Amino acid sequence: MQEIKSHRERRTVEEHKDFIDFYLDQMEKTKNVPNSTYDEENMLHSVFDLFLGGSETTATTLRWALLYMVAYPDIQEKVQKELDAVLGSSHQIDYEDRKKLPYTNAVIHEIIRFSSIILITIPRQAVKDTTVLGYQVPKGTIIMANIDSTLFDPEYWETPHQFNPGHFLDKDGNFVIREAFLAFSAGHRVCLGEVMAKMELFIIFCSLLQTFKFTPPEGDKEINLSFVFGSTMKPHPYKLCAVLR
User: How far apart, in whole angstroms, are the C-alpha atoms of residue 90 and residue 72?
Assistant: First the structure.
């Protein structure tokens, strides 16, 4: 709210710098439109969604990614060997490169699966009486899908409680996506930012591993892979060493 107030005070009609400026402008244009949804409360929720869904989740997943590379140096080495062999050390990473990097792509998807930073979906409400798999769901029932259960279901994952990039590789080493990979939910309510999140994770992760080797600080013998419970499942604070390759 303070940020919105600050935008109101400093903005000019001719110069929009960000989402809030454009939203304030739209509020002004629609202030006399009946039932307009452009209001301050909606803006607050929209900005919150952008931060939580578009920034915090990706940053948390990257924190897990680096922690896993420290915990599993053999996997980090295989990723770097593939990057070096296919792209070289000076290539600027592009999202299209994922098609040439099946192992690296598999590692990134396994990071998303194994970290499982969102345990349940945003609550939904049944709009009419219905039946799901034989269960009666009355109108008005609040429903929260358990994403975490699909990502660790032994019926669909050979080693669900192990960090295993092989979950996303076929017998010939080609990348494959699993039906049970529902980290971004599914159907009409699938995460709108899925493509952007995967793009960000791929480019940042590959760029970091292309440049650095990640190791634990000298003397650190135990790596804590347990999570801190919250709106997203975060790793405990940790330190690492980034050594230029």
Answer: 25
Can you give the pTM of this predicted structure?
Answer: 0.82
Reported CATH class of domain 74-244: mainly alpha
| Alpha carbon distance 8, 5 (integer Å) | 5
More confident residue, 15 or 81: 81
- pLDDT-based confidence at 13, cuts 50/70/90? low
The label of the residue with tokens 């419970």 reads 229
Domain ranges of the chain: 74-244
Chain segment 126-178, per-residue pLDDT in tens: 999 999 999 999 999 999 889 899 999 999 999 999 999 999 999 999 999 99
* CA dist list (Å): 106 to 93, 99, 102, 103, 183: 16, 11, 6, 5, 14
What is the SS3 assignment for 243?
Answer: strand
Contact between 126 and 137 under an 8 Å Cβ cutoff? The reply is: yes
Was 206 annotated as part of a binding site?
Answer: no
Helices (H), the chain: 2-10, 19-29, 40-51, 57-71, 73-86, 102-115, 147-151, 194-211
Closest CA to 111 of 55, 183, 169: 183
